[in-house]
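Sat 14:20. Reprocessing the chain from the morning session after the first attempt stalled halfway. Input below, unchanged.
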Amino acid sequence: MRDSTPGLGADEMTVRTQARSVSRSSRVAGTETWRRWGGIAFALLLLAVFTRPLLSMFRSSATSELNSYTLLIPFVSAYLLYIRRDQLPKRYATDVPFGVLFLAAGLGILAFTWLLDIRGPVLAHNERMSLSALSFLFCLVSGGFFFLGRAWMRAAAFPLAYLIFMLPLPEPVADALEQASATASADMANLLFHLSGTPFLREGQIFQLPNITLEVAQECSGIRSSLVLFITSVLAANLFLKTTWRRLALVAIVIPLGILRNGFRILVIGLLCVHVGPQMIHSLIHRRGGPLFFVLSLVPLLLVLWWLRRGDGQARHLKAET
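Finished this time. Tokens:
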């Protein structure tokens, strides 16, 4: 006779359930591993395809007075991903629509760049590098959607979006920003000279001071320091602030702060030339004083960050109490 003991049947069902669970877990683990290594292989393939334009971009940035900061951006993004690794989903998925969308955009930009190159020297060097790097970033994001999924990409949105600062500024954009910054800095210097009581005459970008005439040229715009300050504020806002309006406030204050810094630098150089001697126009504070004034501009930025962060903490405390 067949043994129909209920306990034995229950044990068999438990064993089978556990076996199915183990098998399902193994399949899931295998799929996750495949997606992870597939994403790594896709990223390496992209690096191989874009090796030449990326190396050209980094070499050019290393010798550029304006774009040298771009060399640090990939390391900052990698560090952000590392410190947020516990927040990234451990389950991966495939998001075909967004993957196809970003891949099409990346390949479209690449094809457009190649087409312009075939037709002749239409693009400047910086513009070509910017388009190539943008194409690389779009293709890289598409791989994230294909192999990791929308949830993972949402969690890693800021570190990946931060890579956009890796792109060198196209020359027309850089020229326009330098001109706007130089004009605004001259206006700020005009106000500061008035407040200092220094006698002067102004005609456009030229200041006639006792003993010397100063011209605020585009090279004196301080656009590099302003860009670095802006990028730093974006990073600090994301790391230390929680509410959207406080983040926007910190980033927005960088623009008037950069103008004030440049105007103050012009004031200091002008006063040194007036009270010490016109030879101060060739001093280190003029030729190499940019980092010093940049550090000085960090002081009010950090104070504003402290004030906004304090308000953020108080808001969270009140919310917790209610």
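DSSP finds 13 helices and three strands in the chain.
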